Amino acid sequence: MKKIVIGTLGLILNYSAVAQAKEIHLSAEAVMTMPKAKAQKGLLFVGKSGTRFDYSQQGRKFARIEMPAKGIARILFLDEKKYLEFTMPAVNSSSVGHVAQPCQPSANLECKKLGDEVFNKMKVESWTVLPKGAPKAISILWDKTRKMMISQVLPNGVKIVNRLIGKEKYENLDVERWETAFNTPDGKTQKGSMIYAPALEVAVVEKQPNGMVKELHNFKLTEPKQSLFEIPAGFKKISQPSSTGSIKK
C-alpha cells in the first residue's frame, strides 16, 4: 500500500519528498483517527520547495519541513520559536511527489528490478528488496504509472495485495477505490481500503484493518507560499533533542 506517508503523526499520507517529472502543488487538511481515540489533525502543504506538515502534539505546536532539492529537513517548535535541522537524501529537482521505483539501492539495501509481468490484468514491474543482514528479500510488484505497490510478499510470508474496485468522485477529484488484502501464511485474511487520486498521485483515504483511518480533505491545488518553507524570523537553531517532547538548549 502506498505509504503518504501521513508524517510525524502518520499524517503525511504518501508525499515523501522525492522527485518526479510532474510538479504537484497543494494544501489540505490531514486527519488520522483510531477506534476509541481522539482524532489527530494537521495541515499538509506540498510545493516546489518541498513539503510542510503542521500539527499539534501534547498541547504543543510543530511543523515538519522537508526540502529534497536541498537535502534539508527541519522541525519547527512553533511555541518555543526554535528549530531543529538535519540532512536528508538530496534530490536534484525542485519537483515533489512520489518515488519512481519502490526502493533505492544503498550500502545497506539491495534493490533489484527483475523484469516486467502482468498481475490481475495490470502491467507491473517485479522487484526484490533485501536489507543488509536480512535472511530473505521482500518481493514487490510495482505499478510505475501510479507509483504504488500492487503486491508485496514479506519475509514472514505475509502477502499484501491491492485490487482496483472502481472509479468515483471525492471532493471534486476523480479517484479510484482500491481494496487491500493482508493474507497470512495460516490462511487468514484481513482487509482494508484506499481511495487514490491519480491526478495528485496520492491516497486521499486509507483504512487499515485495525480501524485506523487516514484522510486528506479540503484541497487547494495552488502553490503554497514560499515563506512556509523558510525559517521564521526570530527562531533559534537548537541541537538534536533527546525526544520530540524535550529540547536541548
Which fold name corresponds to the CATH topology? outer membrane lipoprotein receptor (LolB), chain A
Tell me the major beta sheet: 16 strands, mixed
- Spatial extent as radius of gyration: 19 Å
Shape summary:
globular
Q: Which blocks of ≥5 consecutive residues have pLDDT under 50?
A: 1-21, 92-97, 243-249
The percent of residues in helical segments reads under 10%
Number of helices: 0
User: What is the CATH class name?
Assistant: Mainly Beta
Known CATH architecture: Clam
Strand order of the largest sheet: 9-10-11-12-13-14-15-16-17-3-4-5-6-7-8-18
Order of helices and strands: EEEEEEEEEEEEEEEEEE
Q: Using DSSP, what is the number of strands?
A: 18
Q: CATH H level: which superfamily? A: Lipoprotein localisation LolA/LolB/LppX
**Percentage of β-strand residues:** over 45%
What separation lies between the terminal Cα atoms? Answer: 40 Å
Q: Provide the domain count.
A: 1
| Overall mean pLDDT | 84
Structural class: mainly beta
Features:
mainly beta; 16-stranded mixed beta sheet; outer membrane lipoprotein receptor (LolB), chain A; 249 residues; globular; disordered N terminus
